[in-house]
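Sequence only, no structure available. Ideas?
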Amino acid sequence: MIRRCRENYRRLRLGTRLALGMGVLSLVVFAVVGAALSMYMRDYLERQLSDQMKLVQITQSKDVVDYGSVQGKPYYGWYTASYKVSGVTPVLREPADVPPDSRELLVTAATLRTSGTDPVYRTARIDGDAYRLRACEVEAGVVLVTAAPMDDIENTMDQLVTVQVVAFAIALLGLVIFGRAVLRRGLRPLSDMAHTARGITSHDFTDSARLPVRAHRGNGGPEVEELRTAFNTMLEHIDDSLAVRTEAEQRLRRFVADASHELRTPLMSVRGYADLFQYAAANEPGERDKHLARLRAEAARMGILLDDLLLLARLDAAQVETPLRQENADLVELAGQAADAFRAGHPDHPLTVTAAPNELRLRLDPLRIRQVLDNLLTNAAVHTPAGTPVSVRVSVDADHAVVRVADAGPGIPAADQDRVFDRFYRVDKARSRDRGGSGLGLAVALSLAQAHGGTLDLTSGPGSTAFTLRIPLDRTDRPPKN
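Reply:
I predicted one. C-alpha cells follow.
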C-alpha cells in the first residue's frame, strides 16, 4: 500500500507535488498553532475559574468559622464541603453539599494536609463530569473544599477546536488550490522548455543541422531565467556542433565522390591502354612503346593523386602522427630553388624573385615547404595565359616570415575565392585534368602551412592574384634589427 502511494506520488506533476508538500507543511504549522492556542485558552479559562472559586471560598470561609459549615450553595452544580483533618483521615462535617460519590473531595482535602501547600487545586471527574477542585484551610484542622463544574470550559474548548479545524481546513484547501495554480504559473517556463525539448526530438536532422526551437523568455524568476539561458546556450552549442558535423559529412561525401571520380579517370585510361596493348599494340613496337608511355604517365598521375590524399590524411591526423621532419633550413634558399624549377618547367612565364633578407633560417620541413612553393607557382602558371609575369617575394613581418607568390593574371572570381582551398575544387570546371590538375594543390599547401603553425591567404582582383604564406618565427630565428 505504501509502495503504491509512493509510485502514485512520483507520477504527479511537480506543481502538484509542491502544492501537496506546501499543504502538509501548512497542516503541521496549523496543528502547532492550534494546539498552542487551545492550551493557552484552556489555561486562561481555568485561571478564571480558579479566581472565581477563590472569591467564593472567601465568603464560604466566614460561614464555616461562624456556623461550622457552609450555609448556602453559591452556584448551580457546585459542591462545597468542610472537613476535619485532625485525624488520619479527613472527616466530613455536616451539613454539606456533596455529590453521591464524594471521594474526590476527600482526596483533595487529604492532599492539602499531606502536601503542606495552601491552597490546593486539582482537576478530577465526579459522576462522569470534569470538575475543578480547590481546597484551602479555613482554620486550624478545618479544610474547605469547593468543586466547580468545567462544562463551560469544555464546551468553549470544543467550539474553539471546531472553529480552528474548519478555519484551518478551509485555509489549507485554499492554499493547496491557489498555491497549485500559482506554482503551475511559475513553473510554466519549465513546461515550455520541456515542450522545446520534445520539439528537438521530433526535428529531422537529415534535412538541416540547425535547431529551429528556443526557450522563450517568461516570468519565471532569476532561477528559471538562469536555467533558460543555460538551456539556450546548450542549444546553441548543439547547433554549432551539428553544423560542424553536417559540414564535415558533406565535405566527406564530396571528398569521396571527387576522389572516386579522380581515381576512376586514370584507372579507365590504364584499362583502355592495357586493352589496346593486348589486342593491337603487341605486334607493332612503335605503338607498344607509345601505349606503355601512356600507361606509365597515367600510373604516375594516379600515384601523385594518391600521395596527395595520403598526405592530407596524415595532416588531418597530425595529433597522432605528424608528417613533418623539421630541421633548420634557409627559406630564401628554398624560394630560389622553387624559382629555378619553375623557370625550367614554365619558360613562357617570366619570374622575378625578391628577398629582403639574404638569409632567413627557420625550423621547418624543407621538403614540405618546397612543395607548398611549387604548388603555388604551378597554380600561377596553370591558371594564367602564357607571358603572364609571376613574382616571389620573401620578407619578414613582425613575428612571421612571409613568402608572397603573385601573378598578373585575370584573377579569381569573388564567388570562388572562399573555396579555392577546398579539396578537388576547381575554379574552371571545364579545364582538363592534364592541364588543371586534380584540385588538391592549394588544399595541400594550406594544410602544410597550418602544420607549420602558419597561414596561407589569398587576395585577388582583376590583373592581380597573390598567395601569402606566413610562418611564425622562433626567438632564435629572428634577424637582428638594423
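The chain is about 55% helix and 15% strand.
Hope that gets you unstuck.
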